[in-house]
Amino acid sequence: MHFSRLVLAFLLLPVAAPAAAAWMPAVTFLQKADALRARGPLALLSRDLKLLQAEAENAGDQLHAEHVARVREHGPLEYCPPANRKLLAPRELIDGLHAISPAELGRLDIKQAMHAILVRNYPCC
Predict the structure, then answer these.
(1) How far apart (Å, rounded) are the C-alpha atoms in residues 56 and 59?
(2) Domain-located, residue 54
(3) CA-CA distance, 52 to 73, in Å (whole number)?
(4) Per residue in 68-88, pLDDT tens?
(5) Count of domains in the chain?
(6) Does residue 16 sit in helix, strand or coil?
């Protein structure tokens, strides 16, 4: 009986892990995105497509929640995106990642890189 509890705990471990939110390195994200773009229509069959979509969506959701919290708290805003749309469209994200220097990109995870793109693309006036 003890062994089965240990196995169950081990199987549940990956489900509990995302709470820590370890983001994909931005350079890895960009490499995978460029590889998918090179595959053309065959990219739709790749597991990496769903992985990148989920990573960008989760990071975007967290950035959006943090931004909304700052607005509610009347705190200083680092970026002011247009209302009623996704923070970054897929093409805007990839182009923004390409605009970041390789040295800086190597130090950022995808959430930090998305934040840098938002600050650059949507400054508050």
Answers:
(1) 5
(2) yes
(3) 31
(4) 999 999 999 999 998 887 889
(5) 1
(6) helix
